[in-house]
Amino acid sequence: MAAEDQERGSSTPGVVHVAILRVVKPGRELEFEKLIQEFFAEAAQQPGVAGAYLIRPFAGAASREYGILRTFKSAEHRDRFYRSDLYQRWTEAVSPLVEGEPKRQHLHGMEAFFRESASSPPRWKMALLTWVGVDIAVYAFASAVPRVVQLPGVVNFFLVNALVVVALTWILMPLITKLFDGWLRETGS
Question: What is the pTM (predicted TM-score) of this model?
Answer without folding.
Answer: 0.52
